[in-house]
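User: Design a sequence. Structure:
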């Protein structure tokens, strides 16, 4: 037998063995539950995605210590839609995952058709909105309502801040445009006037032209639902241009923006997320990572996601139903609060009103 043919046959056998072993490892009929996560571990949402990841790691370690047998695979979508698609294809086609959780509507939109086609449940832990409710039979959410957050700020602007005119400056982004729309509709329904509405680019960091337009429109306030680290420069530039009205934003605003804006962030109003049962989780986080959490709410997203899917698996095995159907029956007391899907695909939470005071985002008690 020619030497070259021997080499070819040897390589062919080795390849066949690798494929067999891979297929065995990826067999979805395995008794081991496989949970995946698609998170923005790098890019604009990186610090928040890292907190979600850490919460999931804490829950995974706890569950394994209690003898629960499952694999957990995390993929970084790099805060990009192409990253979400690539991560989805790997998890479904190579890892043969049973269920996946992700953070936002931006991540869900490009991958929802893939999950529906694969008949694999996808759980969204940060956002809940009208799009997600129509995204298909395998798309679930336990997040905060985007529409209700926009409406809540509009009501507060009219009834508490006594604003009559507002300029709206969102970004060209699924979430930002959605929450801006809900704010605008509610504000106008309550008798307010929108003096301008103009969207910035996602990558934009110079907002001076838009701020100047808002100022000359005689707006009493600006609603700026911008993506992470965009609000910081906006607030600096608003102060630089002498805008004296009220400034309002939404739940993508974080301590990172305050650190950028410094004193320019004082007095900004924010509708944002909350975790109502997170004291114990905070202590677990400090014990594992040796530091205070950057934002315990995001830690709770990952922690509760793992426990939600584990509870669904328990229900699935007990009642001999699919994981997708079992998810609809989940009812747990999560670190972020009660999670109860009540025979549906959606459990919506409502944000609370906060204000930046002394460099921190503080719950409004007034």
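Assistant: Done.
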């Amino acid at each position: 037998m020619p030497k070259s043919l021997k080499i070819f046959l040897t390589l062919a056998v080795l390849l066949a063995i690798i494929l067999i072993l891979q297929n065995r490892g990826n067999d979805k009929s395995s008794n081991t539950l496989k949970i995946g996560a698609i998170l923005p571990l790098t890019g604009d949402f990186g610090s928040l995605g890292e907190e979600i990841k850490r919460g999931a790691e804490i829950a995974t370690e706890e569950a394994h210590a209690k003898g629960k047998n499952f694999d957990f695979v995390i993929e970084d979508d790099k805060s990009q839609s192409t990253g979400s698609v690539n991560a989805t294809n790997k998890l479904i086609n190579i890892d043969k995952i049973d269920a996946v959780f992700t953070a936002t509507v931006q991540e869900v939109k490009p991958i929802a058709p893939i999950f529906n086609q694969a008949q694999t449940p996808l759980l969204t832990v940060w956002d809940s909105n009208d799009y997600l409710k129509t995204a298909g039979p395998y798309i679930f959410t336990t997040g905060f309502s985007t529409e209700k957050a926009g409406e809540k700020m509009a009501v507060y602007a009219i009834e508490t801040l006594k604003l009559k005119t507002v300029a709206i400056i969102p970004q060209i982004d699924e979430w930002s445009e959605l929450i801006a729309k809900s704010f605008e509709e509610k504000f106008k329904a309550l008798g307010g006037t929108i003096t301008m509405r103009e969207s910035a680019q996602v990558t934009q960091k110079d907002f001076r032209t838009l701020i100047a337009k808002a100022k000359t429109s005689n707006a009493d306030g600006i609603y700026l639902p911008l993506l992470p680290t965009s609000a910081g420069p906006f607030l600096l530039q608003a102060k630089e241009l002498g805008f004296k009205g009220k400034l309002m934003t939404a739940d993508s605003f974080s301590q990172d923006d305050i650190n950028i804006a410094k004193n320019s962030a004082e007095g900004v109003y924010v509708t944002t997320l909350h975790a109502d049962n997170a004291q114990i989780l905070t202590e677990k986080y400090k014990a594992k990572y040796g530091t205070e959490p950057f934002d315990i709410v995001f830690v709770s997203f990952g922690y509760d996601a793992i426990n939600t899917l584990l509870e669904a698996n328990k229900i699935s095995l007990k009642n001999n139903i699919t994981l997708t159907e079992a998810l609809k029956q989940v009812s747990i007391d999560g670190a972020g609060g009660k999670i109860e899907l009540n025979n549906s695909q959606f459990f919506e939470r409502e944000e609370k009103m906060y204000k930046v005071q002394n460099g921190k985002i503080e719950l409004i008690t007034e």
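The longest helix spans residues 296-319. The radius of gyration is 23 Å.
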